[in-house]
């Protein structure tokens, strides 16, 4: 039985990619991180001795701390935070246990260099289309839940990114040989090297991929129609993103659980015959 200051792998996994995900802090030492430079989605790095520097930021938030094995560093940092009044828990087994179960991890793309994912700002073209909105959703749900996304004129995206130490979403491409495939969700998730079925399925929905699972092909037009409605209803970029976040959350939640949902739906259909 897990202790009250511990969170299990399944418990944390269930929140990954959702708005309910806690703040996740990676306190591995540099040597351990260099050996495997990946992060649990939404996590950011902090030295174990510096966690109290973030107390004001962590107030009234749920926090999960992990180190290499879930032992002294994460448990000590968790205890420090809890003593300061923060609702913190450490991850059972740490990074090695998460990795051993082949649970979702993200790699830091070369495009970001040594940037701190927690403080990185992102720049997108104004009047964002469905692909851009999907990328913004991914950034908020898998990279940094409080990411600052700046909407500017299309011609100024890279200039603003350069002057404000930000990252242009358009710098991520699905295929560098195809210049018309920039800033797609597939390009962004590929750059972060995340392997999660629900994310791959969402990419297929957006592309209406001919290789998508049969049951998803009929869902894709519905997503396209809903997103077209959102883009029409919300000309303001920020409000458009807020609405799109809710829609993508709903589709992602369904995709995470759709195999079971389909089994239950099929069973219901059989009962009605």
How would you describe the overall organization of this protein?
- The chain has two domains: 6-107, Rhodanese-like domain (Oxidized Rhodanese, domain 1); 111-267, no CATH class.
- Helix content is 47%, strand content 13%.
- It has twelve helices and ten strands.
- The chain has helices at 9-15, 30-35, 55-58, 72-83, 94-100, 130-143, 157-163, 185-191, 197-207, 214-217, 220-233, 237-272; strands spanning 6-7, 23-26, 38-39, 44-45, 62-66, 87-91, 106-107, 121-125, 148-152, 166-168.
- The strands form three sheets. It has a five-stranded parallel β-sheet.
- Helix 9 crosses helix 11 and helix 9 crosses helix 12.
- The longest helix has 36 residues, at 237-272.
- The N and C termini lie far apart (44 Å).
- Residues 174-182 and 261-273 have low confidence and may be disordered.
> Rg to the nearest angstrom?
20 Å
Mean pLDDT: 87
Largest sheet: 5 strands, parallel
Number of domains: 2
* Strand arrangement, major sheet: 1-6-5-2-4
Instruction: List the helices and strands in order.
Output: EHEHEEHEHEHEEHEHEHHHHH
Proportion of beta-strand residues:
5-15%
- Work out the helix count: 12
Helix content bin:
40-55%
> What is the SS-derived class?
alpha/beta
